[in-house]
Amino acid sequence: MILIITGHLAYPLVKQMADKSSKETIVHIADTQVAAFLTPNMIIKEIRENFSDILDDVDLILVPGLIRKDTFEIAETLKIPCYKASTDAADLAMVLDLVDDLELSESKPADKLIIDQKRKQALKFIEDYENDLELREELLKKENNIMVRNLPVGDDYPLRVLSEIASAPVLSKEALIKKAEYFVASGSDMIDIGMIAGEDRSDEIPDLIDTLRPIVGDRPLSIDTLNPNEIRAAVEHGIDMVLSLDHGNCEELLPYLAEKGVPAVLLPTNYSKGFVPKTPEDRVDSMLKLKDKCSSIDSVCDLVLDPVNSSSIVDSIFAYHDFHKVCKKPMFFGVGNVVELMDTDSNGANALLAGIAMELGASILFTPEESGKTTGSVRELAIASKMMFLAKNRKSIPKDLGIDLLVFKDKKKRMDLNAEDLKELPHYKSDEEMKFVHDKAGSFKIRVEYGIDVESSKIVVVHYIKTKAQAVIEGHTAKEVYEEIIRKGLVSRMEHAAYLGSELQKAEIAILTGKEYVQDFELFKNPQLKVD
After folding, report:
1. Coil, helix or strand at residue 365
2. For residue 270, what is the DSSP state?
3. pLDDT digits (tens, 9 = 90+) for 465-517
4. Which of 109, 219, 339, 430 has its CA 20 to 30 A from that of 381?
5. Distance between CA atoms of 425 and 134, rounded to whole angstroms?
6. Cis status, amide bond into 363, omega within 30 of 0
């Protein structure tokens, strides 16, 4: 028998979920309105007072997933296994159905364990697939898969994320290294050295490659240029892939690339003569001709993804679709062309474009991160590529995979428990702003230091008395910082503490979402358009 402890507000939903399960359960309402406020001592007392005569029949105790303390003390005292259930009562039925197969935790809510387990299984599937060398050998015999350095690239593998260090020659060595480290930490599979159109910087390329190679490790390095001199310099210095060959430079470079065994991305253009095909038919025809010319090397075909409402993103997608029908070579999908040129949050756009790329049979997702709104695009595409690979192999939609790109919204809304009970209580609404009173304990200046990822970012707070800085408090979360401020006695007024908590939470959200934090300014804009 499973004994489930809850509070008055959650009881109706908890009982409903327990009744859905085939397990034998008893749902007990503890003497509290809010289940999350329960403590181990309160739970022990409740159980002893109400179930002392049947404790021998209880096999398992489940307590609310939101209680703050671990359940070890309950299990130790009552000599019955006791674990945290789900944070949301609506997930309790799922927990009960899986209770025999799930390794429940005394510290972690059960629904999070289920999510963690699904994520581990998803990542293990991808890891096992990638490490299957016999399978790799078979897949590389097919036209749609090639090797770039030691990375298999093609329709049978996860979409590879190629991140570009734009205008690399003008960056300082420190900035170049920092950008590469950031892309590697974000999950990039390949790093591209973006050169400067119209300039010949071939003499700088050896140093660029030597600087980046230790940072990227075994990841392939590519170079983005049409300049034959720069391509030769890069190939001579061990570049792993060339972006790009087109009808204007391929004949000059092909013998050299074939001799060195370096693959190239093909463009259906001839920029030396100003030729850029527009229609899907022209793009496909031009690409097929170039592909035949370049049969002596491994190649990846870029049909050129257009931004929304420039030429036509739809026509460019048709070109990819039509080309893949007649040729199975790996294809290059320039996601950054679209996302950089559209004012929207990048994560949803990147996920959708990765899904379209997967359906079209593309193999490489290409992006720089050149604007604030696309910050995090490499990480987003790295996750999206795994999502689409799992969906493709499971023959499912990209949902409930164990991996997701949900940031600002959740998959479901929490149920409002017993809102009717609140109707009889007095309701208050502020109609005036509280008057500012200076806190004699001092004031604070808050900022965020952004690292290459969430873990390396931090909140930095400087404490002032009058205009003189007294101390610096740092932490990765709002809780770490405000607890230290309280321990040090640096705040004395209630309204100041409330303000401080609000600002610190904004700073933490900024770290998690990539938003810019500025003290006393709203983190999110009000919507500019209202829908009636």
Report:
1. strand
2. B
3. 999 999 999 999 999 999 999 999 999 999 999 999 999 999 999 999 888 99
4. 109
5. 69
6. no
Strand partners, 224: 194, 243
Query: Minimal CA–CA distance to 316: which of 289, 277, 351?
Result: 277
Contacts of 360 (CB under 8 A, 6+ apart): 317, 320, 321, 324, 331, 333
For the whole prediction, is pTM greater than 0.70? yes
Greatest C-alpha distance within the chain: 91
Give the Cα-Cα-Cα angle 261, 161, 173 (nearest 5 degrees).
80
First CA to last CA distance, the chain: 51
Unique residue bearing structure tokens 């299990």: 75
Question: In sequence order, what E strands does 384-433 have?
Answer: none
- The sign of the dihedral angle between the CA atoms of 343, 349, 354, 355 is negative
Give residue 447's identity as a one-letter amino acid code: R
Residue-wise pLDDT tens digits, 389-424: 999 998 989 988 889 998 888 776 665 555 666 677
Per DSSP bridges, beta strands 145-148 and 151-154 are antiparallel
Give, in degrees to the nearest 5, the angle at Cα 300 between 295 and 302.
115
3-state secondary structure of 133: helix
Rounded Cα distance between 54 and 80, Å, is 12
Coil/strand/helix, residue 7: coil
Give Cα separations from 122 to 127, 174, 187, 339 (angstroms).
9, 36, 16, 27
